[in-house]
Design brief:
By secondary structure, this protein is α/β, with parallel strands linked by helices. Helix content is 25%, strand content 26%. It has a single domain, classed as 3-Layer(aba) Sandwich (Rossmann fold). A seven-stranded mixed beta sheet has the order 3-2-1-4-5-7-6. The N terminus and C terminus are likely disordered.
Length: 213
């Protein structure tokens, strides 16, 4: 039997995301700010300060947050997406810091934010990176900060050995550092998906995960 070696980058790697942006096969990059983001910002609940846009892509939501009084850091693995975001922010006269980095390890940031967005990034992480994502994010948010997450729920393509998406166990990882405010379940095309709004608890990240806030 011949050994077949694929040159395709691994799903979710920096090379994979870069290839998608270079190919133009980026259906998630609609250029539209999600209504859920607009509703949260217009509600007046979120204190203006630093905001993190995790998996920011070309920075559509990053620019929206900057327009509404936040100091924004957009984080992504795809350099092409970050270049697009930077150029668009400059053209609009907005100050947004775009960083190429791993959202599961935010140690390169020296800010603590009042808001974080993740519109379709967490569910693309491998299972082993999700726990560090949660603790790293918690470390970079002030108590009471809001965290808005959009994620596919578990689904499985034909021929795949394991489902993709974020299920109840993944969402449960955010406790006790975060308190779930609400969840809205629906569909994105054929895939089940959900929005989640969390608030950062007062529990220190260095405390035992068995402690309660």
């Amino acid at each position: 039997m011949a050994l077949v070696v694929s040159d395709a980058p691994a799903f979710g790697s920096a090379e994979w995301w870069e290839a998608r942006y270079r190919s133009g096969d980026i259906p998630w990059d609609t250029g539209i700010v999600p209504p859920e983001v607009e509703a949260l910002i217009s509600s007046g609940q979120v204190a203006r300060g630093w905001a993190l846009d995790l998996g920011c892509g070309s920075g559509v939501s990053s620019r929206y947050l900057a327009q509404h009084g936040f100091h924004v850091v957009g984080v992504d693995l795809a350099q092409s997406a970050l270049v697009r975001g930077h150029r668009a922010a400059q053209a609009a006269g907005l100050s947004v810091l775009f960083c190429r980095g791993d959202v599961s390890s935010l140690g390169f940031l020296r800010v603590r934010a009042t808001l974080a967005l993740d519109i379709g990034c967490f569910h693309a992480l491998s299972p082993e990176r999700r726990p560090s994502y949660v603790t790293s994010l918690a470390h970079h948010l002030v108590p009471g900060a809001f965290y808005l997450l959009y994620a596919f729920e578990p689904f499985q393509h034909e021929g795949e050995t394991a489902p993709r998406g974020a299920g109840p166990t993944d969402i449960g990882r955010f406790a006790p550092y975060f308190v779930l405010q609400w969840a809205q379940h629906g569909r994105d095309g054929e895939r089940p998906a959900a929005w989640y709004l969390f608030r950062r608890s007062a529990l220190s990240v260095r405390s035992s995960p068995l402690q309660t806030a």
